[in-house]
Write a structure and sequence with these properties.
By secondary structure, the chain is of the alpha+beta class. It has three domains: about 70 residues, TATA-Binding Protein (2-Layer Sandwich), CATH 3.30.310; about 120 residues; about 120 residues, Hypothetical protein, domain 2 (Endonuclease III, domain 1). The chain has 17 helices and seven strands. The strands form two sheets. Strands 1-5-4-3-2 form a five-stranded antiparallel β-sheet, with no helix packed on it. A two-stranded antiparallel sheet has the order 6-7. A hairpin with a 2-residue loop joins strand 3 and strand 4. Helix 4 crosses helix 16 and helix 8 crosses helix 9. It binds a DNA duplex through helix 6, helix 8, helix 9, helix 12 and helix 13.
Length: about 300
DNA sequence: CAAGTGCCTTTATC
DNA sequence: AGATAAAGGCACT
């Protein structure tokens, strides 16, 4: 197996652990110093020393693109660095990058992620892949590729539910059928505007604004997308409350999930305030807030869960 | 350790 | 339009 090395420097900050632990992706697993990931139809492994990225079983172009290494992170930082809160998050998690995920997998992942915690999402996707994905052997271990849209489209709702999807099974089934039957083009959405992409995505069953924004940001290269989950809602209402009417802040703080209209107000604030790279601001704030609010929990998210072996 | 709470929400209904 | 409830079941406290 040939091993490839990418050199990193201060013009290209990158932190592999932050990037893979921050909850944007669910199919990576750390063994010793190596991260093993199932990406597309293949498995590859990668590790980082201070200024080198070393990987096996993939090529440089793919790795650079997948990890977003071509993005000018220093420029992104200077664009979003608007106040002390985001500055703090950037200092703490510098090198966290937004991945360029496969849109199909990303879409199903975030449909599954609704109202679930990250370890549970990992379990669901692992079970789905074991049941419907191709078995891959790598480094004497077994892995399972993410199922093709055809496989999930042909699966029964009952079979999907058995993977722990619960009521999400019917959404995954419905969306898989639409993607497979209608010859849905993610490539068109990648080229389209963020507005257009989210308009199309929310037509799919199980996809609301939050899921559409996550898919746009993590797989369709819409770096201005600003997904509003429970954590980001808290952040915005805590640090940026003066951008909203007092009544509105009170109301939104009192309940856990925002209405559609409230979601749009919060998300639009993020896009306008942080600009074209608002999605990066969102990830840094999300990560920083989680790390701060729940230290013990965060240790767990950051550490590897042995049960989560892929 | 058991029971309660919360979960990177969406949809259906009123 | 806006509020409210229901929806698996797992993970964590």
């Amino acid at each position: 197996m040939d091993c490839v090395i990418i050199r990193l420097d201060s013009s290209c900050p990158f932190n592999l652990d932050f990037t893979l632990c921050c909850g944007q992706v669910f199919r990576w697993d750390k063994r010793g110093t190596w991260w093993y990931g199932i990406v597309g139809e293949d498995v590859f492994k990668i590790r980082q020393t201070d200024n080198e990225l070393e990987f096996e079983n993939n090529d440089v172009d793919f790795v650079r693109h997948y990890f977003g290494l071509s993005e000018d992170l220093p420029k992104i930082f200077s664009t979003i660095r608007k106040d002390k809160h985001i500055k703090h998050a950037i200092e703490k998690f510098a090198g966290l990058r937004i991945l360029h995920q496969n849109p199909w997998e990303c879409l199903i992942s975030y449909i599954c992620a609704t109202y679930k915690n990250i370890p549970a999402v990992k379990q669901m996707l692992l079970k789905l892949s074991r049941k419907f994905g191709r078995k891959i052997t790598f480094d004497k271990r077994y892995f399972y590729a993410f199922p093709a849209s055809q496989s999930l489209a042909k699966a029964s709702v009952k079979e999907l539910a058995e993977c722990g999807l619960g009521y999400r099974a019917k959404y995954v089934s419905g969306t898989a059928k639409r993607i497979y039957d209608d010859d849905f083009s993610f490539e068109d959405l990648r080229k389209a505007s963020h507005e257009k992409a989210r308009r199309e995505l929310v037509n799919l069953p199980g996809v609301g604004l939050k899921v559409a924004d996550c898919v746009s940001l993590f797989s369709l290269e819409k770096l201005e997308a600003f997904p509003i989950d429970i954590w980001i809602k808290r952040v915005v209402l805590k640090y940026y409350a003066n951008n909203f009417p007092t009544e509105s802040v009170k109301k939104m703080s009192s309940k856990k999930s925002p209405s559609k209209a409230e979601y749009e107000r919060l998300s639009l604030f993020g896009r306008k305030y942080f600009g074209e790279y608002a999605g990066y601001a969102q990830e840094y704030l999300y990560h920083s807030e989680r790390a701060e609010t729940s230290n013990p929990k965060m240790q767990k998210t950051f550490k590897l869960n042995p049960k989560n072996s892929i």
